Amino acid sequence: MHAIISEEVSSFERWLSSLSVVETISDLRQRVDALRQQELARTIRQLSPTLPDRELAAVQELTTRLMNKLLHTPMLRLKDAAAAGQGHVYAEAMRYLFGLEKNDEADYDRNASQQACNDTDELGSRAAAPAVAQS
After folding, report:
1. Given this model, what pLDDT does residue 30 score?
2. Phi, psi at residue 95, to the nearest 5°?
């Protein structure tokens, strides 16, 4: 009986620890989905505005599945890190790496609209401009 209780307490503690990264997971999924939708709309405009509904649905499903597969392992590892008491470290790193800072939402919206106008990839990658030395 003690073994069952101990196992359930441990399971509950892991779940409780994972709650500390839920906001980061949600924010990342929203960010990636916004990029997915933006690039999907751009591609559909390029292909044809009269793309048949069946093909449009297939392309939308493809992009959603790809997004989910790309995010699956990082999300599991983030939850595992949280269960091990290291969630805050990895969540902070993820927020930094993907630009998920709370005060950055206005900048993100502006950058997303600029990205739609520029021909960049989904992460906004461009050739780095040479640094200008200041005296």
Report:
1. 96
2. -60, -40
